Amino acid sequence: MALDEVKIGGLGASRRRVEDNRFIRGKGNYVDDIVLPGMLHMEILRSPLAHAEIKSIDTSAAYAIPGVRMVMTGEMMAARNLAWMPTLSYDTQAVLATDKVRFQGQEVCCVIADDPYIAKDGCEAIVVDYEPLPPIVNPMQAREDGAPVIRDDKVGQDNNVIFDWEVGDKDGTDKAFAEADLVSEISMHYPRSHPSPIESCGSIADYDRSTSKLTVYMTSQAPHIVRAAVSLVAEIPEHMIRIVSPDLGGGFGNKVPVYPGYVMSILASILLERPVKWIEDKSGNLISTGFGRDVYLKGQLAVRNDGKILGVRMHTDSDHGAFFSDAQPSKFKIGLMHAAFACYDVPHAHLTAQGVYTNKAPGGVAYRCSFRITEAMFFQERMVQAAADDLGMDQAEFRRMNLVKDDDFPKRTPFGFLTDSGQYEKCLQLGLDAIGYDDFKKQKEEAKARGRLLGIGISTMTEPLGAGNSREYDILGIKMFDSAELRVHMTGKAILRTGAKTQGQGHETTWAQIVAHELGIPAEDIIVEEGDTDTAPFGMGTYASRSTPVAGAAVSMVSRKIRAKARKIAAHLLEVSDEDIDWELGRFYVRGAQDRGVTIQECAMAAYSNVPDGMEPGLDNTAYYDPPNLTWPFACYIATVEVDPETGVWDVLRLVAVDDCGVRINPMIVEGQIMGGLTEAYAMASMQFITFDEDGNCVGGNYMDYLLPTAWETPGFELHEVVTPCPHHPIGAKGIGECATVGGPAAFVNAVMDALKGTGARNIDMPLLPDRVYEALQTGKDIFGHPPVKTDS
Amino acid sequence: MTSLFEEVPPTAVSSDIPTTRVELKVNGETRAANVEPRLLLAHLLRSGFKLTGTHTGCDTTNCGACTVLYDGQPVKSCTMFAVQANGHEVMTVEGLATSSELHPIQEGFKDEHGLQCGFCTPGMMMSAKALLDENPNPTEDEVRWALSGNLCRCTGYQNIVKAVLWAAEKMRGPEPAAETEGE
Amino acid sequence: MYPSRFNYEAPTSLDEAIALLTANEDAKVLAGGQSLIPMMKLRFADPAMLVDINNIPGLDKHGKESDGSYRIGALVRHAHLEKSKSLPEHQPLIASAAHLVADPIVRTRGTFVGSVCHADPQGDWASVMVALRGSIISHGPNGKRTTPVTDFVAGPFQTVLAHNEIAIEAVIPAAKGTRAGGYLKLERRVGDFATAGVALALDMSESTVNDAGIGLTGVGAQTINASEAAAALIGSALDNDAVENAARLAAEAANPRSDHRGSADYKRHVIATFVKRIIANVQHAEMQVA
């Protein structure tokens, strides 16, 4: 008499999404859809120069425009100690520039007016006198002797270096390299890219003097972190701040940081005593908000002749722009870059990392990166490809030689993480079979004889998700647990709130599925809410694929707490002792007398009408979950491509994806996440990047230059599944949100480089634009793409 | 609408700002407004008529989130002025469903997981409607081509294509029964 | 995102429109608006007045005339040309370019003539007009005039139109024989500006080229008329030498800049490659028909 789990929308059900009901009707509630009485509108004036002193700002013409209510400058904010704010990485960031602008697009003034058109008129009327300074657009320039110090606002900062960091075993690695049969070396730049959700950032700040309460509707993936940050910066008590993240039009890490625009809207609302709405335009979003990547690698693999990797050496230089504003676990300066090579059995590894300031927008950790894991895994698979080629060994064979075997778990990774589960070889083989690996290699040779260039690229990786356990992980000292609060009403319906914040991942649908799995309450009877700090339990938000591993686990745990109480109620109703009660999905029954039972709904009713003596009424609880370890999904992505030798244009023939993310809560949603991630991978590999010319002008600061692929270019994807449950997660799930973005790019790049094998070129920096591919074909040399972009003078 | 109260600028504030009256059909209903010429059609719909289903996602006419049907043709409502729409017909996402039924395109998007964050979805569905109105039996390539003016960041398009093909099949209706020989 | 203020007029006759332009120095014509409005939203353009010509009747026709010429009215949208069933046969070059302009949604509003008037060096239609030796017919207060497109485009985003003159029609002269040709554009994705593009038109009698024209997109300060390259094809039977020569001359006529889309050399190389490919496509199509 147990319920059918799939029928009630439990685990494994491809339940159609609850949130769709409003989105397909155009009834989503995004920040720009919200209108408050008396609301004013704010626009930001941004610097056209990448590096300049501000000589003067004349706002008088703006004030002369009817409808302009206020103009804010850095000076005004400085008078209130708000011109600078702390970042999530213990640095400071300018809210409005005072002495200097340090990147093109930096916020200089803002205008608050009756409507956004007038606010824009106001911005256009402001006259700023700049004295240009030489800009720095890459780490090499930042470290040159005599390079201007960008952060001369910081006491004691006399160069452009932010950090020097290292991890791993230098001596062991050096020894391994000394003993190697071959050292394979490759250098590359993972270019600056931008998460660019279609909805840009925005906020509506509403300070109510009568209640002293500040409410901010905001595009935030982590509303509780924002509440803490706002409390710190604006010196408003935490309980008087309410952050509401309504529907978000995508996030991808772009909506984690606290941006100057939010702070400006808050101050404006306090000063004007009216709600102030700031909706960022796409150009502002691309040019100033949290980008991802912009890391340079010098990578070396020490290998034995039979293909065994003996040691890994990586040096990374990361370009953080003008302020170190990255959101990442505080102990790790370069995020989880040292998760590289986690899927391989490599005895020694050493990573050194340096971060620098440049005259570019601040950030680095964002864009579906799981804290720099995108860079780590891209570098890993590019190094692996180069080493296999250098050895003259088949790509699949080389990986098989080094992949961790099923029996090896639990396994220390080269840099000291602990992986616990996986079937790496099985995933690789499934991928190779699906793409027809041996046949394709034959095809490739035949095509080459006829002047056609085909290529196949493999990318395999496991990545740590759910950062992470409180022993090691925190942002600004706040531990990275998450939470779930579940209330079951008397008729057995329920409301669930978590500390996560969905931006399209479908939490309203999937969290209910976990509760359905644990309690047998049909998923449709469970409402899920996230994003309002007044009602949601404290959480660290949704990014870095952490929600299923952490918040999802909390949902499971809180459901179990409720089931434990319901069990006692059941015993009371059935007039037996606790120990004689058994459970099947949706009901408790008397052991040995299965027909004598009560449903979970009957227990819920009893919680309000008939509890045993000494028990509190009600049926609700909260769980905070501190993950014991990270989770480790594994992926194998294989791409086949054809390159047009005459133009350098390349097309994807097929993309096979094998994902092992443990137990899949909602297979349909999991597949959606994979396909979205693969598209971003394709985008970065083929067309999407932000670069700079030698004057510090941003190329890629609007959608004409920053190219997202359309339905026409984007290839189709063939998805396959392996399930190796996570041994420590309550429902065995591992998380999937970013896997394809992490592992995908290398599949495409490896494929194109494979098509170019034999030309002498071992690397082309992403994006593999036609002209770069063509140049590699013609010259046989590696093609670098780091800024400044080469232009005619 | 009520004319019980409408605030206007006080006499001290000069108002030589030009405004024009526009009258247009929106989702079958005739609506009128006084607008400045520079008001974009997207903003008339969103801020004026409170039809916030149409979204704005860029400032360079690239993303297509603002796509509506204008006299049956898909247009980017951020790249038209409201005044141009005088005398014309506009359909937004709010006009897809009837009071009792979703449009097959909406059903298809839900059934085939053709949306995640939902932000590009209204524009995507309007482009899809324009396609199916003209071509009830498109190939996958024709669907991808027709949607190549609408950017999506979440889905990777594959399920969007499936959603449109699902809708096309439903809109075509059941295949007529084949004639059998000998009858 | 928000344009500055302007006055708006929507005349219903050409005379009225011209009178409005004459009376207002800082007025601009609004047709499709798919180039002008984005510029206004970024405040790269802020005309004091827009004269909307979309309500003037008679400007939306396109078709073949009795004298063999092809005319495209000012309000013919890109989409009309893209979806025309008869166009591929009469004007294969226009047909092949039509679906490469911008994206499908922009194509429902943007106009062929408006695009030529916008004179963007990365505009597709100007190259097509150059290849087809087309002309623009414009109306001003002093009447009509016809200007060959090579004289019409004066520089980047500049034409010879007086501020109170309206382009009302594009005319493509009759083919000297059978018209063949094609348009190839290297774009990184739909809607991107061209890295490089070639419009190539051939008027053929059997296998001999009677007349030819080549226009180049995105490889100079304005649309480039690769006249020497075109001349190299005239009189030929599209033999290998003639084609190679034309390709080389077209690449030399190009004057591209090195930028984030590629080096100048690369863009020249693409031009040469596309000349050869378009001709190869023409020959392949001929073989299929034969």
Could you walk me through the main structural features you see in this protein, from its secondary elements to its overall organization?
The complex is a heterotrimer of chains A (793), B (183) and C (290). With 793 residues, chain A is α+β, with helices and mostly antiparallel strands. In chain A, 28% of the residues lie in helices and 25% in strands. Chain A has 19 helices and 36 strands. In chain A, helix 14 runs parallel beside helix 15 (547-574) and helix 17 packs across helix 18. The longest helix of chain A has 28 residues, at 547-574. The N and C termini of chain A lie far apart (78 Å). With 183 residues, chain B is of the alpha+beta class. Chain B folds into 2 domains: 19-95, Beta-grasp domain (Ubiquitin-like (UB roll)), CATH 3.10.20; 104-172, Orthogonal Bundle (DNA polymerase, domain 1), CATH 1.10.150.120. Helix content of chain B is 28%, strand content 14%. Chain B has 5 helices and 5 strands. Chain B has a 5-stranded mixed beta sheet, sandwiched between helices. Chain B is elongated. The mean pLDDT of chain B is 93. Chain C is an alpha+beta fold and 290 residues long. In chain C, the strands form 4 sheets. Chain C has a 5-stranded antiparallel beta sheet. A 4-stranded antiparallel beta sheet of chain C has the order 11-12-13-14. The mean pLDDT of chain C is 96. At the B-C interface, strand 4 of B face helix 2 of C.
Counted beta strands of chain C: 14
Helical stretch count of chain A?
A: 19
Order of H and E elements of chain C: EHEHEEEHHHHHEEHEEEEEEEHHH
Oligomeric state, counting identical vs distinct chains: heterotrimer
Give the count of structural domains of chain A.
Answer: 3
**Strand proportion of chain C:** 25-35%
Structural class label of chain A: alpha+beta
How would you describe the shape of chain A? globular
Mean pLDDT of chain A: 96
Rg over CA atoms of chain A: 27 Å
Class inferred from helices and paired strands of chain C = alpha+beta
Number of helices of chain C: 11
Largest sheet composition of chain A? 7 strands, mixed
What is the makeup of the main sheet of chain C? 5 strands, antiparallel
Low-confidence stretches of chain A: none
CATH superfamily of the largest domain in chain A: Aldehyde oxidase/xanthine dehydrogenase, molybdopterin binding domain
- What percent strand of chain A? 15-25%
What radius of gyration of chain C results from the CA coordinates?
19 Å
Cα shape of chain C = globular
Percent range of helical residues of chain C: 25-40%
Mean pLDDT of chain C: 96
